[in-house]
Amino acid sequence: MGFGLGSVLMRLGLRSPDEASVDAITLFVVLLTSCIVIGHLLEKSRWLTESITALAIGLCCGIVFLLTTEGKSSHVLVFSEDLFFIYLLPPIIFNAGFQVKKKQFFRNFMTIILFGAVGSLISFAIISLGSALLFKKLDIGFLEIGDYLALGAIFSATDSVCTLQVLNQEERPLLYSLVFGEGVVNDATSVVLFNAIQRFDLSHITSTITLQLFGNFLYLFFSSTVLGVAVGLLSAYIIKKLYIGRHSTDREVALMILMAYLSYMMAELFYLSGILTVFFCGIVMSHYTWHNVTESSRITTKHAFATLSFVSEIFIFLYVGMDAMDIEKWAVVSKSPGTSVGVSLILLALVLIGRAAFVFPLSFISNLTKKSQNDKIGFKQQVTIWWAGLMRGAVSVALAYNQFTRSGHTQLLGNAIMITSTITVVLFTTVVGGLLTKPLIKLLLPPPKHSGNIIFSELSSPKSFNIPLLANGQESDPDMGADVPHEDGLRLLWSTPSHTVHHYWRKFDNAVMRPVFGGRGFVPCVPGSPTEAIIQ
Amino acid sequence: MGFGLGSVLMRLGLRSPDEASVDAITLFVVLLTSCIVIGHLLEKSRWLTESITALAIGLCCGIVFLLTTEGKSSHVLVFSEDLFFIYLLPPIIFNAGFQVKKKQFFRNFMTIILFGAVGSLISFAIISLGSALLFKKLDIGFLEIGDYLALGAIFSATDSVCTLQVLNQEERPLLYSLVFGEGVVNDATSVVLFNAIQRFDLSHITSTITLQLFGNFLYLFFSSTVLGVAVGLLSAYIIKKLYIGRHSTDREVALMILMAYLSYMMAELFYLSGILTVFFCGIVMSHYTWHNVTESSRITTKHAFATLSFVSEIFIFLYVGMDAMDIEKWAVVSKSPGTSVGVSLILLALVLIGRAAFVFPLSFISNLTKKSQNDKIGFKQQVTIWWAGLMRGAVSVALAYNQFTRSGHTQLLGNAIMITSTITVVLFTTVVGGLLTKPLIKLLLPPPKHSGNIIFSELSSPKSFNIPLLANGQESDPDMGADVPHEDGLRLLWSTPSHTVHHYWRKFDNAVMRPVFGGRGFVPCVPGSPTEAIIQ
Q1: What is the tens place of the pLDDT at every residue in A378-435?
Q2: Among the four residues A75, A180, B28, B389, which has the most C-beta atoms within 10 Å?
């Protein structure tokens, strides 16, 4: 496949802009294909994951470009925020919602929100304050207070893909759902926070503005969720009402994909958080819509969404890798390399501290509210959660571009340093963090059968896995009566308050929601859920 | 869903370019969703097909835009050639190759090439000559000889989607495969022809240039086919060699989609015909690659490709409809409405004549070579073929934009008239032709059981349906011996020459190709082919 790249490099000078885009697309398709093939060959490797492979290939490609064209062709490589937020992120987040084990997710909902929202806010505060205090001692250009707050938001956006690739969802459902759920809520929190900061005049912060900021944040959080749920329900209703004959699989699949994307774009249109919207749209679609379509459509959508998400992820890592080698942004910084290294180190330290500052205290608080041992988060698991959120990814890069390229591109020293430092931190945490993740997790969490404590905590109460909120597993009966624990309502509310909420939700779901919007048990044939394999 | 459009219109003035693209995407997603829902509701209609619905919705939308913004927002609507040729056309053509009934296609291969390539050349010659002679009498701007030849290529590109939506593949395999195959080969021919014309200096045509043109045409035709077959075989080989464990459906699906797209982009990169390449890549992929993947991947790719193609088709019609209402290009023309109408009428007449000039003579020639009655093309079927190719579609629009916007956009009278006339002809043929297709086909070809002649010709020789080239049906045994007709080789060659080619191809396929590239019978589980339903 090497000749594709060779011919691209050869022809770059000869082609019109249209034709250059043909080159760029071909190059990206070739690279994506190589990433998938190489990723498959390296699957058994002790250190490498698919995302690091993609990042490395992207970096190599960037270097080859740089050497061959002597910095002339940086145009092909510039990171496009639009491409990222409009095309690559939505399928990843939607698929996350679509394939999430809803039972686990809602069971740990409060802990996830605690980590994802409150934790991100703590991390945001520490990084903003820290950078505002420490950067003054370094010789960088003028930064406004809004820039420091933006930095906080940029660096509180974690990227837990690496860890999730290593963690086994079947072996450690609690840990997986926490890391996974925190990742999604954290993405949404930092983007919402970032947008809120950009929209307010922060030259003089008063308590009123702080309150408004917080109000805006809550408003975005809730309205985005409501929009996602609404679009998801609408899709379920349309497909249930119209597709009685259900003779066109293509139409069903197209409708599901289009409406999922619609939820994201509508959120963006109304200045809400598309990430949250499309995530909840995915959850609702897998609970209702997915059960209203034919079996072929189910298999198709399940794998098509996963494939889209998979390709988008690889694309992003490839892109970040290639973009890092874009020479233009390094030109300004190279005059003061010491400052740039200093900024990167400070940011890295703040990231480490900011994360430790909430994971351990919040775990402690979360553990206080849990009665049973199996719901508590052990110390080793806390370390894993802390570790999983150290990596910074494409969201940080995209937000950094948004904030620091608005006034005069990367020509200003301050802006250029911020962008290159973001890239440095992203590359460093992803590569070093990514390489160490597999060994670290093997060390901290050996396979369950060798770890007495964890296996005990996970197996001691199998019952707790049988109380679903949005029940979706094979074991849950569509007739909800069978699922109610054998205790009376009042005692149940006392001992496991959230389980009781689940109980009443299921009652409501079966009595009101399912008859209108379809779902498991309200369609002729009842296979598994999107999270479970139907045909392997 | 009306509020989406309303808010788009409301905000168009207020947004930055980035945000305007969010508006445009949301609008298109909403419109696509409506087209699918409305198309489903109108399915039983006597007149309407999905493509006309999409075109009508696009037109309405364009009118609403025009009225609301008073012509200011034409930017959202401008037809982008890149979008069409890089993103929308490849999935449609690939899916055509992937889902084609290969047996029928290769059985009628010579007739299809005759209609698609030779026929398109005849049509091209008549339209070029006719327009060169007739346009001189009208008062339009200066047109070069290259422009007239380009017009010939533009208007020899047919769009048989409408007819294919109405024809039943099971009831009339011969007719369907002819119309379908001609459509694909015709698309490729006209695009290749168009590119060849643009690349040569045509100010003074000599016999050398004509010969070069023809040589270039043949070169493009064969090299494109070879490239498509090569990429298809490579994908089959990679997936067969690497995916022994076959534990990742997503990787298989991603690889198939990426390599299909890669074949198209590589053809474009090497200035070949992407349409032909991706079509043959689709055929090879459905014959080899598709059999090397897991059953989930098979179901997923089959429906995912069909869905992509379906959505792209609707998108194109919607787009052409909206673009037709773009005010800028009508402004210049409105000064001389008579000329514009005259040009459109002349083109329409030339299209009708050009098509008749080859369908009936070539059918006659084709019938001469056929021995058995069932292979001959009856008069009513000839009329259907003639009718199916009258519609002009997005390929014509895209080529017209390419030719007539290069020198000074639509400000020049000649260019403006050519573009508006193309749109007029496309709209007229698609709407009028599309509306009449269903009734006409019902009139010409009533369901087989009432049409003695046709049922006879189709059932008299069931054997002929059992001799596959790239055999793929359920009835064909992987062990090829069973398929050889009970006649000796020489007599067979005499009576049915093309069947004998099939016979030796199958021998070669089983002995050499399948062991290397996989395919039916060379993978553990053997379900149906992409053209057959597995789970309905």
Answers
A1: 888 899 888 888 888 888 888 888 888 765 555 677 788 888 889 899 989 988 888 8
A2: B389
Nearest CA in chain B to A268: B22
d(CA B492, CA B494): 5
Contact present, B77 and B69 (Cβ < 8 Å)? no
Phi, psi of A90, rounded to the nearest 5 degrees:
-50, -50
3-state secondary structure of A67: helix
Q: What is the DSSP letter of B392?
A: B
Contact yes or no for B26 and A269 at CB 8 A: yes
pLDDT tens by residue, B129-156:
998 888 877 767 667 788 888 899 999 9
Name chain A contacts of B29, Cβ cutoff 8 Å.
258, 261-262, 265
The answer to whether the Cβ–Cβ distance between B268 and A304 falls below 8 Å is no
- Residue A226 confidence (pLDDT) above 60: yes
Give me the sign of the Cα torsion angle B244, B250, B253, B255. negative
Mean pLDDT on A318-341: 78
Q: Is the distance from CB of B164 to CB of B100 less than 8 angstroms?
A: no
C-alpha to C-alpha distance for A4 and B266, rounded to whole angstroms: 8
Please identify which residue in the block is written with the tokens 């006719």.
Answer: B130
Q: Whose structure tokens read 């002995």? A: B511
Q: Which residue do the tokens 């050996």 mark?
A: A446
Domains of chain A listed by start with CATH number: 4-444 (1.20.1530.20)
Q: Flag if B269 and A306 touch (Cβ within 8 Å).
A: no
The set of residues, in sequence order, having a beta carbon less than 8 Å from that of B346 and lying 6+ positions away, is: B130, B131, B134, B135, B138
Kindly indicate the confidence band of residue B336, based on its pLDDT and cuts at 50, 70 and 90. Answer: confident
Nearest to A123 by CA among A359, A342, A400: A359
Average pLDDT, integer, range A471-489:
39
Buried b (16+ CB within 10 A) or exposed e, A91-130: bbbbbbbbbbbbbbbbbbbebbbbbbbebbbbbbbbbbeb
Average pLDDT over residues B335-342: 81
User: In this complex, do B251 and A40 lie within 8 Å of one another by their Cβ atoms?
Assistant: yes
**Interchain proximity B250–A306, CB inside 8 Å:** yes
Give chain A positions within 8 Å (CB) of B262.
26, 29-30, 33
A36 → chain B, closest CA residue: B251
Query: What is the model's pTM?
Result: 0.81
Question: Can you tell me the distance from the alpha carbon of A202 to that of A188, in angstroms, rounded to the nearest whole number?
Answer: 22
What gap in Å lies between CA B536 and CA B532, rounded to an integer?
Answer: 10
Q: Name every chain A residue with its beta carbon within 8 A of the beta carbon of B310.
A: 250-251, 254
CA dihedral B464, B278, A7, A307 (to 10 degrees): -130
A478 three-state secondary structure: coil
